[in-house]
Amino acid sequence: MTESCTLIIFGATGNLAQRKLLPALYHLERADLLPPEMRIVCSGRKAHSQSDWLAYVQQVLEQHAREPLSGDDTDRFAARMVYHQGDLADPATFAGMATLLNDSNYPANRVFYVSLPPAVYGDVVEALDRQGMLEESDAWRRVVIEKPFGCDRESAQNLQRKLGRHLREDQTYRIDHYMGKAMVQNVLVSRFANLMFEPLWNRNYIDQVQITRTEQLGVGSRAGFYEGTGALRDMLQSHLMQLMALVAMEPPVSMDADELRDEKVKVLKTVRPIHHDAVHAQAYRAQYGAGRVDGEAVPAYLEEPGVDPHSVTETYAALRLYVDNWRWRGVPFYLRTGKRMAEARTMVAISFKQPPKHFFRTAHIERPPPNWLIMSIAPEESLRLEISVKEPGLAMKTRQIGLDAPFRCEHHAQTDAYEGLLMDLIEGDRSLFLRYDEVEWAWRIVDPVLGVWATERDFIPTHPAGQWEPEESYRIFDKAHHRWRHRLDPEP
Ligand code: BG6
User: How many CB atoms lie under 10 A from the CB of residue 232?
Assistant: First the structure.
């Protein structure tokens, strides 16, 4: 039985709470998974009476819940909620919250979810501690920190030092929502619950690995956050690096939190550092210009509200990395992400080496296509394997076919990454949350790139919104035949 707790959300009126946290909690309510006594305290700066707040939550859920709301569930959900107003720069806000939480109606176990701008993470935790709210004499206390954890290695170290004065590592839940995605977890299951991939999963058979997350959405209303962040920090240092660690890691001793994270850290530690002089050969950045997405005209990044008209913040970033260990040495891992691209897609695409001899070479094809294994995370949730077969007919010609295995059938319920992670949080399972050393090693990998880009403030290549990245990005490829794999189906 899951222990009861009080969940306190800082930044409850923010974008993440609206789009993800409140809907995820509501879906857990519907599925009857929240502990009956659990309370949810929503902290925000704006003044809201309790009834205004509940009306606001109702509106948020109508917009973001997967299914139409049901009266009983919404009533139960509303009964757990209380709004707490206050300016977080004012110590009285925390004193007021401490008084509220000491009321016996609020279960003593507490989760503080810090969904606020990264600059204030440390101050909020310090203020909680000053009011004795992290004291664990009677019950547990957990704090969730959203990404990005710092903006480079040094700032991550400083943040960690600050948090470490008030929190133990086992109380600190660094969230990366990619780890909560079912298909991301499926990377682990595909690898470690099936023996057939293991003999092939190494430098002898694999030619390249591409890890992609492209979006069609632009920066929207998030320029305040994005301008100082950019694609490399926002997506690549966190989500894509986690995916790479899952693809490249050795089998852990067990699936316990620390065993799993030990193996992920080993991958990140073995990534060959990018030398300052190699940044241009291994990294590429670009920004979206005006264009059309799904037939609709969309503005350039520089025309988005809140963006500096001279900004060189990258909305697209790609890296070539090498995991220099026994298994992977020499295999390029290409990681790329971009906003306002031709398609929205998240996938791990692995291509295999060519057979040593081509018996079935046709007149037209010098080099038959390689085998690909594609773990598609979104929009399709599937595994795809591409192999060469003989074409029907008398001639000995080959062609490539794809074997597709959807991961989800119609009867499987949809869940969002945040639902699983919120349950893990309440249950104290840290396996899918990041340990500090993972974050620090990931920063170590991207720091040289950030350093060089920070000095090149005059120019950034652009690509029209709604299109793939410029061909200039091919300069990061290790071999002449490497190309971006854009789609699940091979390019025509
Ligand atoms: C967030 C980034 O962490 O991930 C956003 O801050 C990005 O910029 C989002 O849009 C993408 O997540 P998903 O789950 O849609 O791939």
Answer: 23
